[in-house]
C-alpha cells in the first residue's frame, strides 16, 4: 500500500472516551434524578457555551504567550484567545455579571455539561468529563451554604445511596484562624499544614502530627515531607483537629448557624456533619466548604479495602463574580462529578446497566415489497413505537434476525410471500425466544419449536406489538 492510500488508525486521543447507548441511558437517568431534586429546591437551568474568552477563566489563565497550560485554547479571527471551559463556575460568574441588571438576586441556577482539562491523563482521570453544578449567587448568609449541604444529601437519597454517604462541612475562616493562631505565615507552610489536616481520615491524628512536623514515612518506606512546625505550633493545629475550634472566630459562628438549620430540618450527623478535616481547594473558597463522601468500601488496585471517597463538593466563593464588577457579589455552590458518581452507583447496583430497548425491526423478505414493509414501520411509529425497516444488503433471514438481536430489538416482523397471500404476519418475540432457547439443547428441536414466534392478522400489527411490549 502506498503512502497516499495508507489507512488512518482509528484511535481516541488520550484522556477522552466514547460512550455507548447503555452508558448514555444510565447516566441520563441519574442526571434526571438529580435535576428533579435541584428543581424541587427552586433552582432553574442555564446553559453556557463550551468556549469562553480565556481571561474569563481567571485563576486558570496561564502566564504564557499561547495559553494552553491547563486549558485547551485557540485564537479567533479577532486575535482573541478563547478556551474550552475548565469548570462550570467561571462561566456562571461571567453570565451573572453580564446579565446583572435583568437577573433576580439571589440568582439560583443549575448547569450540567462537559468541562475540559489540558492535563496529563491517567487511570480514571480524563481530559473531558461531565459536571452537574448548582449555585446561589447574591446570598451572603450561611443559610445559602446550609441549603447546598441539605440539597446534596437529598440528591444522594434520591439516587438510592441513603446510609452510604455523609456530607461533611467546614469553613475556610476557621482554618485561617487556626493558621493565624499557630503563627503560620508563609504560603508554602500554610499549604503543607492544610494538606496534613486533609489526611486526618486517612492517617488519623498521629499521622497528621507527623505531617505537621518533619514528615511521615509510610509502610512502603516512601517519605512525605512535613510542614516543619514547632511543637507549639503543631499543638494548636492538633487541638483544632481534635475538635477544639479557635475562639471568637467568624467561621465557627457560621458553622454553628448552619448546624442549627440542619437540626431544624431534621438532617442528623449521619447525613450532614461539621468536620474539621474538610479542606478542598482553599485558594478558591472564602467561607464554608463541603463535600459528599461515599462511606462504603471498595477495593483499590492493590486489592485493599478503601472508602470510595468524594463524588462532589463546593463552598462559598465570594470573590469570583467581583472580578467582573466593582461591588462584592457573594456566591455559594457545589459540583457533582458525574462519571465518578455513576461509577459509585454501578458498584452499589443503583445505576441501570442494561442496554436500552431497541426498535421493532421489520424484516425485508422480498426486495420488491419494500413499500409494504415501510408502511408497517410507519404504522408502528405513528403509534409511538420505536421501529425500523431492515436496510442492510443481505436477504438472509438469519442474518437479519441476528442484526435485530444486536440492536436489542424486542421483536421482528416477518412477511414473506406465503404470509402476504394469507393476509397474516409472523411476529418473533426475541425476548421470549431467548428465554425459551435456554431450555432447548437440540438445534433441530429449537428450529421446530420456533420459540417466541406467533401469527397475527396483518391489520392487528399495532395492537399485537403494543401487547407484546407491555408484557415484556
Automatic annotation (TrEMBL):
Domain of life: Bacteria
CDD domains attached to this UniProt entry: HisRS-like_core (cd00773)
Places the protein is found: Cytoplasm
Residues that hold L-histidine according to the record: 87-89, 117, 131, 135, 280, 284-285
Catalysed transformations (reactions): tRNA(His) + L-histidine + ATP = L-histidyl-tRNA(His) + AMP + diphosphate + H(+)
Keywords: Aminoacyl-tRNA synthetase, ATP-binding, Cytoplasm, Ligase, Nucleotide-binding, Protein biosynthesis
Annotated signal peptide: none
PROSITE patterns: AA_TRNA_LIGASE_II
Annotated ranges, domain Aminoacyl-transfer RNA synthetases class-II family profile: 30-359
Gene Ontology CC annotation, any one: cytoplasm
Family annotation (SUPFAM superfamilies): Class II aaRS ABD-related, Class II aaRS and biotin synthetases
GO terms for MF: ATP binding; histidine-tRNA ligase activity
Known partners and oligomeric status: Homodimer.
UniProt-listed HAMAP family: His_tRNA_synth (MF_00127)
Protein name listed in UniProt: Histidine--tRNA ligase
Species this chain originates from: Devosia soli
Record gene name: hisS
Amino acid at each position: 500500500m502506498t503512502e497516499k492510500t495508507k489507512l488512518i488508525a482509528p484511535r481516541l486521543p488520550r484522556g477522552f472516551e466514547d460512550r455507548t447507548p447503555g452508558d448514555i441511558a444510565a447516566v441520563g437517568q441519574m442526571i434526571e434524578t438529580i435535576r428533579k431534586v435541584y428543581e424541587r429546591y427552586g433552582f432553574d437551568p442555564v446553559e453556557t457555551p463550551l468556549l469562553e474568552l480565556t481571561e474569563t477563566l481567571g485563576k486558570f489563565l496561564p502566564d504564557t504567550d499561547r495559553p494552553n497550560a491547563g486549558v485547551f485554547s485557540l485564537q479567533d479571527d479577532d486575535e482573541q484567545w478563547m478556551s474550552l471551559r475548565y469548570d462550570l463556575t467561571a462561566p456562571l460568574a461571567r453570565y451573572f455579571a453580564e446579565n446583572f441588571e435583568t437577573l433576580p438576586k439571589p440568582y439560583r441556577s443549575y448547569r450540567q455539561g462537559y468541562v475540559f482539562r489540558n492535563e496529563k491523563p491517567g487511570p480514571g482521570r480524563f481530559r473531558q468529563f461531565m459536571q452537574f453544578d448548582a449555585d446561589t449567587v447574591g446570598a451572603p448568609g450561611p443559610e445559602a451554604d446550609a441549603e447546598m449541604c441539605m440539597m446534596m444529601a437529598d440528591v444522594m437519597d434520591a439516587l438510592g445511596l441513603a446510609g452510604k454517604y455523609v456530607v461533611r462541612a467546614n469553613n475556610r475562616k476557621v482554618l485561617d484562624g487556626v493558621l493565624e493562631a499557630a503563627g503560620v505565615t508563609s504560603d508554602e507552610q500554610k499549604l503543607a499544614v492544610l494538606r496534613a489536616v486533609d489526611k486526618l481520615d486517612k492517617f488519623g491524628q498521629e499521622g497528621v502530627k507527623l505531617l505537621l512536623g518533619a514528615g511521615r514515612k509510610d509502610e512502603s518506606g516512601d517519605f512525605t515531607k512535613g510542614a516543619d512546625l514547632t511543637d507549639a505550633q503543631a499543638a494548636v493545629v492538633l487541638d483544632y483537629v481534635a475538635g477544639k475550634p479557635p475562639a471568637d472566630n467568624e467561621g465557627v459562628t457560621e458553622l454553628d448557624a448552619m448546624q442549627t438549620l440542619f437540626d431544624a430540618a431534621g438532617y442528623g450527623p449521619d447525613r450532614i456533619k461539621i468536620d474539621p478535616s474538610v479542606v478542598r481547594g482553599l485558594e478558591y473558597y472564602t467561607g464554608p466548604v463541603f463535600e459528599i463522601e461515599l462511606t462504603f468500601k471498595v477495593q483499590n488496585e492493590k486489592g485493599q479495602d478503601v472508602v470510595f471517597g468524594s463524588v462532589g463538593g463546593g463552598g462559598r466563593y465570594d470573590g469570583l463574580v467581583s472580578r467582573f464588577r466593582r461591588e462584592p457579589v457573594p456566591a455559594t455552590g457545589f459540583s457533582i462529578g458525574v462519571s465518578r458518581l455513576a461509577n459509585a452507583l454501578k458498584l452499589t447496583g443503583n445505576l441501570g446497566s442494561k442496554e436500552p430497548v431497541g426498535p421493532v425491526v421489520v424484516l425485508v423478505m422480498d426486495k420488491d415489497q419494500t413499500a409494504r414493509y415501510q408502511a408497517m414501520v410507519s404504522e408502528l411509529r405513528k403509534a409511538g413505537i420505536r421501529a425500523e425497516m431492515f436496510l442492510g444488503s443481505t436477504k438472509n433471514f438469519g442474518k437479519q434476525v441476528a442484526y435485530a438481536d444486536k440492536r436489542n430489538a424486542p421483536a421482528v416482523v416477518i412477511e414473506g410471500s406465503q404470509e402476504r397471500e394469507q393476509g397474516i404476519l409472523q411476529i418473533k418475540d426475541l425476548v421470549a425466544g431467548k428465554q425459551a432457547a435456554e431450555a432447548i439443547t437440540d438445534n433441530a428441536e429449537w428450529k421446530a419449536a420456533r420459540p417466541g414466534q406467533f401469527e397475527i392478522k396483518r391489520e392487528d400489527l399495532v395492537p399485537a406489538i403494543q401487547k407484546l411490549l407491555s408484557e415484556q
